[in-house]
Design brief:
The protein is of the alpha/beta class. Helices cover 34% and strands 28% of the residues.
């Protein structure tokens, strides 16, 4: 359906149970994200933003409410069906890179293709995405031979190799210097301009404002849903006054 949202949360909740203690990590979350959006999920440590990203990325299940991903009610899907959706529709980029050590850049990027039905020419596909993030000259380097910024670009290439609809980036600049962090954010913005949906989790205002929209999470609740451009205009207006 043309008007179908990519992501839709309806009164979503997540609670953890330990003995007689119940801890609410997420409470009554409602929002939609459409194909092609660039959205930041922003909040302080312990706010629930990483829990929310794991649920959105189909790595965890909610304990209440409803989550529709690409028209599918997540609660009705088996673990195998969720794994298939993750492999074909989603790419992940993590703060800690999660690369295989003592393994070449090329082999790291090829890894998701081992689980894909349509593998095609794995080397060709991996080389193409590595070139797209400016690492065509690093194909046969081991991951312990490249810089932190280059490692994160390898992680982005790995996330792209299956041509996903949406990329989840969890604190992608957290372990990088400002120059490398800016390069990573520029790549994510370019991917969004090419039509990819980008969902970014961060606690940094500067990083969050690369997105077009910010969802602010505090104490497990959605406290604001802001358009970045409108917020900037409002701030500029205050300065002019």
């Amino acid at each position: 359906m043309a008007d179908q949202h990519l992501i839709e949360l309806r009164h979503l909740g997540k609670a953890y149970h330990s003995d007689d203690l119940v801890t609410d990590a997420l409470v009554d979350i409602n929002f939609v994200i459409d194909c092609g959006e660039f959205v930041s999920i922003m909040g302080p440590s312990g706010s629930g933003k990483s829990t929310l990203m794991h649920i959105l990325g189909l790595l965890d299940r909610p304990t209440g409410g409803q989550y529709l991903f690409d028209g599918h009610d997540v609660a009705e899907l088996s673990d195998n069906q969720l794994a298939a959706l993750r492999n074909h529709k989603i790419g992940f980029v993590f703060q800690s890179f999660n690369l295989l050590t003592r393994t070449s850049v090329l082999d790291n990027v090829k890894l998701p293709l081992l689980y894909a039905k349509d593998k095609g020419d794995m080397d060709e596909r991996a080389v193409k995405v590595l070139e797209s993030v400016g690492l065509g000259h690093r194909l046969h380097y081991l991951t312990n031979q490249i810089s932190g910024g280059e490692k994160q670009r390898v992680a982005i290439a790995r996330a792209l190799v299956n041509n996903p609809e949406v990329i989840f980036a969890d604190e992608p600049t957290g372990n990088l210097d400002s120059k490398s962090g800016n390069q990573v954010m520029q790549i994510l913005q370019e991917l969004n301009q090419q039509g990819k949906t980008i969902i970014l989790v961060t606690h940094e205002t500067f990083t969050a404002e690369h997105a077009r929209r910010i969802l602010r999470i505090r104490d497990g609740q959605l406290v604001a849903d802001e358009l970045v451009q409108e917020q900037r205009i409002a701030n500029e207006g205050q300065i002019l006054k």
